[in-house]
Specification:
- This protein has 82 residues and is mainly β.
- Helices cover 0% and strands 45% of the residues.
- The strands form two sheets. It has a three-stranded antiparallel beta sheet, with no helix packed on it. The chain has a three-stranded antiparallel beta sheet with strand order 2-5-6, with no helix packed on it.
Length: 82
C-alpha cells in the first residue's frame, strides 16, 4: 500500500482531486485506489520470484464543473523487487 499525493491551489470543485488507475503492467494482481485519498491497495501478496517489476499508471484530475475546464496529470509508478 502507498499513498499518491497531489495538490491543487484552486478552491471549490476545481481544487478537489480524483485519483484513478489508468493502466500499467500489474502481472494479474488486483490494485485498487481510493478516488479521493489516492491510497493504492494491493489485492494480493507480491512475489518477487514470479515477477520483479510492477508498473501502474495513476491519473489525478480536478473536479471542475465543466469537463472542458478539468485538468489532469498522469504518473507512472514502478515497483522493483531485487
Amino acid at each position: 500500500m502507498f499513498d499518491a499525493n497531489a495538490t491543487d491551489s484552486d478552491t471549490g470543485l476545481d481544487g478537489q482531486l480524483e485519483y484513478t488507475i489508468t493502466g500499467g503492467l500489474n502481472g494479474g494482481i488486483d490494485f485498487t485506489i481510493d478516488l479521493q485519498e489516492g491510497r493504492v491497495i494491493v489485492g494480493a501478496k507480491l512475489n518477487r520470484e514470479t515477477r520483479d517489476l510492477y508498473v501502474l499508471n495513476l491519473t489525478v484530475k480536478d473536479r471542475a464543473l465543466k469537463e472542458s475546464d478539468r485538468r489532469s496529470t498522469t504518473m507512472e509508478v514502478h515497483w522493483y523487487f531485487t
